[in-house]
Amino acid sequence: FGTVRGSTERDVMVNSVAPVWDGNETWLVLGGAGLFGAFPLAYAVIIDALSIPLTLMLIGLIFRGVAFEFRFQATPSHRPFWDRAFFGGSLLATFSQGVVVGAVINGFTVSGRAFSGGMFDWLTPFSLFCGLGLCVAYALLGATWLVMKSEGALQQRMRSASRQLLVALLAVFAVISLWTPLAHPAIAARWFSLPNLYFLLPVPLLVILI
């Protein structure tokens, strides 16, 4: 969205997700409620350990949701502001989600069934890279969506962008797949021990084929 300058093409992009917009936002409620109901201890630890990135994610989602609705009502002179708010909120929410995933992989310091680490334990090079990686993944998802939902010059540009983003995403997968076992011996032991290796080996091959 941020790479497209024409208001007409941006209208096409926004209108393509309008019918499913509200349903797409329910994942946050379902995910949080499901985690709390099924694993309350994990919920308590994660909320304490990741309060900052989760708050940033919520702020991004709020900006994105408000900008999405206000953009349709804004005057032409104000619409660029809401376009930037929509793009910025989406980028912040996506990056924060990736940081959360990276922090979960890194693990948390727990003592007495409660989080005992620091406020910024989540801030590591690995978690930041996961944030960037998820931005690439969502960009690919959006580009392929527009290939289906648009036509003409916009569709052609999105098709070209999809190829480039696919290569970038495969590179992200490769880096994370190597970084994770090297940084976490316990994960390496699980991945490369028998018989786990036989079950996990097809996963990267399927990713490449699909």
Automatic annotation (TrEMBL):
The keyword Cell membrane applies. GO terms for biological process: aerobic electron transport chain. The chain crosses the membrane at residues 41-63, 84-105, 125-148, 160-179, 191-209. InterPro entries: Cyt-d_oxidase_su2 (IPR003317). It is a multi-pass membrane protein. The keyword Nucleotide-binding does not apply. GO terms for cellular component: cytochrome complex; plasma membrane. GO terms for molecular function: electron transfer activity; oxidoreductase activity, acting on diphenols and related substances as donors, oxygen as acceptor. Keywords: Cell membrane, Membrane, Transmembrane, Transmembrane helix. It is found in: Cell membrane. PANTHER family: CYTOCHROME BD2 SUBUNIT II (PTHR43141). Belongs to the cytochrome ubiquinol oxidase subunit 2 family. This is Cytochrome d ubiquinol oxidase subunit II. It comes from Klebsiella variicola.
